[in-house]
Every structure is written in structure tokens, then in C-alpha cells.
Write a structure and sequence with these properties.
mainly beta, seven-stranded mixed sheet, 0% helix
Length: 117
Amino acid sequence: QVQLVESGGGLVRPGGSLSLSCATSGITFADYFMSWYRQAPSKGRELVAQIITPTVTNYAHSVKGRFTISRDDNTNTLYLQMNNLESEDTAMYYCKAQRLGTLDSYWGRGTPVTVSS
């Protein structure tokens, strides 16, 4: 059974930092490229960052320079370090695993991030 479980969300003030994790099981983690998405209230889900290998990453323009995506293929865990958070970053954050070369994908249930003073 495939499971993706996000954690690390919470309430933070503007300018603060949070570190999200996505623990996976039931997949061969190294065979998947991993992504973080987010969905703000009343908005569609949007891509935040992707990582294929530790050196091959992609970021949404709105988070570039503030967020860092990483992966640990030994512990099958995906991370998102979020710095200098803004109110516009408030959203539910989801991790997604997509098997390389296929459309097979899995989603976690999300972890909420609220940026507010």
C-alpha cells in the first residue's frame, strides 16, 4: 500500500520559516520524481517545486530563492524548506510522487501552512 504523509505545517509569522516533510512508503522512492504542490483557499492546486535528482530541481517563480526542495533516497523522504514566508504562501501543501517515464502518481493528504501576523 502506497502512503505519502506530509508533516511540518503550522502557523508562522511573515518572514518566518517552516520545514515540511513527506514520508513515503510502498514505492521504490528512487524511481519517482517528487513534487510539492499547494492549494490556497478558493484557488486551484499549483506546482511549488519538483526534484528528480538532488541536482535537478524546478521551482515556481513565486518561491524561487525562498524555498528549497530536497530528497533523501535512504529514508524515502521528501523535504521543503520554506524561508521568508509571505501571507501569499498560505495554503494546504501536498506532496506528489510520479513514477519516472509514466503517468502513475500518488498524492499525500496535505499539511496546512498559515502565514499570518
